[in-house]
């Protein structure tokens, strides 16, 4: 049975939520691993869940990105172990340089928690294995620093060749450039997104008018790992 | 508030000598109104606190109620009114921190936060600054500790322009057999874990136990500053310590700091303690006096038996939690405080913890008469559409989206009914079952300021109805009484009447009041009391969260039913204030018998699946409730007012906008109407099948064949969504 590590930093707060979905909804084995005890060995995939690592001091994700645990992540990436960053996890991956771009303060100037719609472009890699190109995924966002920014050159040279998640027209909650909500490495092995797929994996939690768009991401990794990613 | 001459005399008597400065500071902190309830204690005995579900009643940092046979719910309310008036951001944030730590003391896992905010008018510049600061404080702190803010209550009123009321509540869940109830023995270690002690919040409880000074800037040192990261580490570390059964007792260092935590723990267990102050981990060099009364946040006291000390220390180190072992419990009932070997205080715990209660003088002011005045000569009725639009855009009624979208209300993946859609929030336990609970906070400062007895009773009833409306069975409440200066008889009367109204209604609705807080001295710098306010937070049991009901209309052709009878009760209504500028008259009568009967019908109808949507009728009356359901469901509605049961109503505005209690608007499924009718008949509940849901976006009110109002839903929605503009300004 493949095993997934959910890495917890001081201030991480979506670790148990992600574990609940992995174990109880898609039937994978998963463990919450304290950042001091995390090493890349023995894990088939790694998730950095949301929250406020180190209280968002300095910048969201900036301090966690400079811990030993992130050196281990670089090693994981090099070995081709799938890595997913959700919300603060995405911020950490960007701060660590594992994904391009930067996440700035929301243009509305405040924290935003609400359901939005996204669309997937160029799905690729273990986290989007079951997703069709152009598929719409509904999920909630909950962040203050989620405005994605990347310079036009990198956008063209990198993002246009990589799997990207975009807010649907009218659903961009933070002023992200090109409506970017999430971005992957070119092969999609490392993927990060601001919305919370773990909150959108069960019908019960979905408000009327939306559908549980996060579940396919966890089903994708289950599918990929079972096929021996 | 400094100790009075009489109190100093009493302290001399207790000690049999002159007290040291440290001892005086300890007594001042502990005997402050905030910590000792000295003005309220005698009256608080009126509250019904017992019930078959109550596991831990008042007395501990938080009460516990049996939610299901194997699960308890721990919930508590607190006010941070004074700090929030001086420093809204930190004042509100530390309010959240404090209430969460209260929940932790029984070993529960905090799973939900509520904020009940009674603030000034958004268009007043100072009030606007307070509103933004308070909401951001709660947002930044609550979001960072990973506990969702799922519900609350808000009221915007000129009376709160300079002194807002910030009431916050936290809910925790815990398997019954994991509750940390405590059995301390002499020799057990006292550990202080969390934040280092600094010079913030010195005698903060004492500051909260007197009116705000004219120059509040000087009191900034009494406001504490929050550190949510440390709070989050405390939450996580305590979950581990509790699950491994390593701690015997937990207590928050809140008001009164170290002094209160130690004296109350000792007094409750008939023990004493020997404390070595120099062992406390500190942020800066402090005097023994400062160490004893500092209210630095995010600190907790845990009691550990000697054999488990090393295991506890290892866990705290691994999880990055600062701590210090500062002493042990003793048998003699005396608290001895040493600093570097020098004894600085020696006081009997029992006498320190419990000052004598004070019987305050209570007297109704002349203006209390305005609540007895029947309203006979109202101005002519306005255009109903204009009145409805005005009400929907009133900050007291408009959508609170600007607030709740700043709160992470989904972390924890428990929130089934989210803010804005239901009369109460519904959360699942997430234990593999479909069980859960509903939670809501309510108050109406206008009611309690006009008629404190009936106003407080109506707060209990509204909370009760909100829980019922989502399909939950109410099981217990906690209360926060925000009042004026207890030394002024005309202020104290409001407190006394609110408490009596609350006690009466809780008893009538069979809701034990398992805990609560009192906040006095809520007056502005001119000595005027702000509107006295009774805030109620209630919990309801939900057997199957997937059946919980929201208020948005779901399908066209279903039937609109009004449950309950409407009376001409415009006194104290939002309509009267918004349209005519009046705040007077008899407020709606509390109707406990109707509440119980009508609630039973709603719960049964929800259980049988007869209804699509339920909404309680409260501020704004029937017309506003109906409009909210239509706006949120994006479906039109047509109602014939001639079909709505009413008694003694002389004008249409009384029918549309009276805030008569014990009423609901229900959307009945079109194929279950007969069943619903029969059920109501059998239960003896008055219902009015008065209209139906339309598939076009329009709200139509008829009187027989005459159309008295026909409004475009889009325009009503714009009014309902206008709070952001009122606060943020702009076009």
Record the SSE blueprint:
The complex is a heterodimer of chains A (229) and B (731).
Chain A: E1 3-8, H1 15-25, E2 29-34, E3 45-48, H2 68-79, E4 83-86, H3 88-95, E5 102-104, E6 112-121, E7 136-143, E8 147-149, H4 152-157, E9 164-167, E10 180-184, E11 190-193, H5 215-226
Parallel strand pairs in A: 1-2, 1-3, 3-4, 4-11
Antiparallel strand pairs in A: 5-8, 6-7, 6-9, 9-10, 10-11
Chain B: H1 5-15, H2 21-30, H3 33-36, H4 41-44, E1 54-56, E2 64-68, E3 71-79, H5 81-86, H6 88-104, E4 109-119, H7 125-144, E5 149-156, E6 165-175, E7 189-194, H8 204-207, H9 228-243, E8 249-252, H10 257-269, E9 272-276, H11 288-293, E10 299-304, H12 309-318, E11 323-330, E12 334-339, E13 342-348, H13 349-353, H14 384-392, H15 401-404, E14 415-417, E15 425-428, E16 436-442, H16 445-450, H17 452-469, E17 473-482, H18 489-508, E18 513-519, E19 533-542, E20 559-563, H19 574-580, H20 592-607, E21 611-616, H21 621-633, E22 636-640, H22 652-657, E23 664-668, H23 673-683, E24 687-694, E25 698-703, E26 706-712, H24 713-720, H25 723-728
Parallel strand pairs in B: 4-5, 9-12, 17-18, 22-25
Antiparallel strand pairs in B: 1-2, 2-3, 3-6, 4-6, 7-10, 7-11, 8-10, 9-11, 12-13, 14-15, 15-16, 16-19, 17-19, 20-23, 20-24, 21-23, 22-24, 25-26
Can you walk me through this structure?
The complex is a heterodimer of chains A (229) and B (731). Chain A has 5 helices and 11 strands, in the order E-H-E-E-H-E-H-E-E-E-E-H-E-E-E-H. Chain A has 229 residues and is an alpha/beta fold. Chain A has one domain (3-226): Rossmann fold (3-Layer(aba) Sandwich), CATH 3.40.50. Chain A has a 9-stranded mixed β-sheet, with helices on both faces. Chain A starts with a strand and ends with a helix. Among the domains of chain B are: 1-31 and 180-353, PurM-like C-terminal domain (Phosphoribosyl-aminoimidazole Synthetase, Chain A, domain 2); 549-731, PurM-like C-terminal domain (Phosphoribosyl-aminoimidazole Synthetase, Chain A, domain 2, Alpha-Beta Complex), CATH 3.90.650. In chain B, the strands form 4 sheets. Chain B has a 7-stranded mixed β-sheet, sandwiched between helices. In chain B, strands 21-23-20-24-22-25-26 form a 7-stranded mixed β-sheet, with helices on both faces. Chain B has a 6-stranded mixed β-sheet with strand order 1-2-3-6-4-5. In chain B, helix 18 links the parallel strand 17 and strand 18. The longest helix of chain B is centred in the N-terminal third of the chain and has 20 residues, at 125-144. Chains A and B meet through helix 1 and strand 6 of A and helix 7 and helix 9 of B.
């Amino acid at each position: 049975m493949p095993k997934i590590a959910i890495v917890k930093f001081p201030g991480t707060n979506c670790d148990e939520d992600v574990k609940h979905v992995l174990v109880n909804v898609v039937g994978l084995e998963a463990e919450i691993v304290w950042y001091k005890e995390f090493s890349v060995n023995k894990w088939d995939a790694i998730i950095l869940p949301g929250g406020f690592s180190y209280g968002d001091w300095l910048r969201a994700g900036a301090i966690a990105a400079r811990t030993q645990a992130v050196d281990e992540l670089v090693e994981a990436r090099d070995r081709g172990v799938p890595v997913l960053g959700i919300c603060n996890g995405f911020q950490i991956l960007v701060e660590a340089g594992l994904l391009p771009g930067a996440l700035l303060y929301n243009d509305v100037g405040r924290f935003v928690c609400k359901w939005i719609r996204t669309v997937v472009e160029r799905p690729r890699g273990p986290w989007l294995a079951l997703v069709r190109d152009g598929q719409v995924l509904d999920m909630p966002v909950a962040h203050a620093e989620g405005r994605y920014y990347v310079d036009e050159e990198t956008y063209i040279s990198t993002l246009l060749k990589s799997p990207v998640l975009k807010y649907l027209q009218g659903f961009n909650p933070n002023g992200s450039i090109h409506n970017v909500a999430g971005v992957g490495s070119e092969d999609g092995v490392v993927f990060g997104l601001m919305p919370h797929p773990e909150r959108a994996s069960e019908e019960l939690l979905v408000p009327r008018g939306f559908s549980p768009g996060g579940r396919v991401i966890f089903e994708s990794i289950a599918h990929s790992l079972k096929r021996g990613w | 508030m400094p100790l009075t001459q009489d109190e100093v005399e009493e302290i001399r008597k207790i000690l049999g000598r002159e007290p040291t400065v440290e001892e005086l500071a300890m007594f001042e902190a502990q005997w402050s109104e905030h910590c000792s309830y000295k003005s309220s204690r005698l009256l608080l005995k009126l509250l019904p606190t017992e019930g078959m579900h109550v596991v831990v009643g008042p007395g501990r940092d938080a009460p516990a109620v049996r939610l299901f046979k194997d699960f308890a719910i721990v919930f508590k309310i607190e006010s941070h009114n004074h700090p929030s008036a001086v420093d809204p951001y930190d004042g509100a944030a530390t309010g959240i921190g404090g209430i969460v730590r209260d929940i932790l003391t029984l070993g529960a896992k905090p799973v939900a936060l509520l904020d009940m905010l009674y603030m000034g008018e958004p268009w007043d510049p100072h009030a606007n600054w307070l509103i933004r600061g308070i909401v951001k404080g709660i947002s930044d702190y609550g979001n960072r500790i990973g506990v969702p803010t799922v519900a609350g209550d808000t009221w915007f009123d000129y009376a709160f322009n300079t002194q807002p009321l910030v009431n916050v509540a936290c809910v925790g869940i815990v398997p019954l057999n994991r509750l940390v109830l405590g059995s301390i023995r002499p020799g057990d270690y006292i550990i202080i874990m969390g934040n280092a002690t600094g010079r913030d919040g010195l005698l903060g409880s004492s500051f909260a136990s007197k009116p705000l000074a004219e120059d509040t800037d000087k009191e900034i040192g009494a406001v504490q500053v929050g550190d949510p990261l440390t709070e989050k580490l405390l939450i996580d570390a305590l979950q581990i310590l509790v699950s491994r059964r390593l701690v015997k007792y937990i207590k928050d260092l809140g008001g009164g700091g170290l002094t209160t935590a130690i004296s109350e723990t000792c007094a409750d267990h008939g023990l004493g303690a020997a404390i070595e102050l120099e062992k406390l981990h500190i942020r800066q060099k402090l005097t023994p006096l400062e160490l004893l009364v500092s209210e630095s946040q995010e600190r907790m006291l845990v009691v550990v038996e000697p054999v488990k000390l090393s295991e506890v220390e290892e866990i705290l180190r691994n999880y990055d939690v600062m701590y210090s072992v500062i002493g042990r419990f003793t048998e003699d009932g005396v608290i001895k405080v040493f600093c570097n070997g020098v004894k600085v205080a020696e006081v009997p715990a029992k006498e320190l913890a419990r000052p004598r209660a004070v019987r305050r003088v209570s007297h109704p002011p002349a203006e209390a008469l305005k609540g007895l005045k029947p309203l006979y000569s109202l101005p002519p009725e306005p255009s109903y559409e204009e009145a409805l639009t005005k009400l929907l855009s009133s900050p007291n009624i408009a959508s609170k989206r600007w607030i709740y979208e700043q709160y992470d209300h989904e972390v924890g993946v428990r929130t089934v009914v989210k803010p804005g859609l239901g009369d109460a929030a519904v959360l699942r336990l997430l234990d593999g079952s479909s069980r859960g609970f509903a939670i809501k906070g309510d108050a109406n400062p206008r009611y309690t300021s006009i008629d404190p007895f009936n106003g407080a009773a109506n707060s209990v009833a509204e909370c009760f109805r909100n829980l019922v409306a989502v399909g939950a069975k109410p099981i217990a409440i906690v209360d926060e009484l925000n009042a004026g200066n207890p030394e002024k008889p005309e202020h104290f009367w409001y407190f006394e009447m609110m408490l009596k109204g609350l006690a009466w209604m809780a008893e009538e609705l069979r809701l034990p009041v398992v805990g609560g807080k009192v906040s006095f001295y809520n007056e502005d710098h001119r000595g005027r009391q702000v509107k006295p306010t009774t805030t109620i937070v209630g919990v309801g049991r939900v057997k199957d969260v997937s059946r919980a009901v929201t208020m948005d209309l779901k399908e066209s052709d279903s039937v609109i039913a009004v449950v309950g009878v409407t009376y001409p009760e415009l006194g104290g209504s939002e309509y009267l204030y918004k349209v005519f500028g009046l705040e007077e008259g008899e407020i709606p009568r509390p109707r406990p018998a109707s509440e119980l009967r009508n609630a039973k019908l709603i719960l049964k109808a929800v259980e049988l699946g007869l209804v699509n949507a339920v909404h309680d009728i409260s501020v704004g009356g029937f017309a506003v409730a109906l409009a909210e359901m239509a706006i949120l469901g994006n479906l039109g509605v047509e109602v014939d007012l001639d079909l709505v049961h009413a008694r003694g109503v002389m004008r249409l505005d009384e029918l549309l906008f009276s805030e008569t209690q014990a009423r609901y608007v229900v959307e009945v499924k079109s194929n279950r109407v007969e069943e619903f009718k029969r059920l109501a008949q059998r239960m003896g509940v008055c219902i009015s099948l008065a209209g139906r849901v339309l598939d076009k976006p329009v709200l139509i009110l008829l009187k027989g064949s005459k159309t008295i109002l026909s409004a475009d839903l889009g325009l009503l929605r714009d009014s309902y969504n206008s709070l952001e503009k009122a606060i943020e300004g702009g076009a």
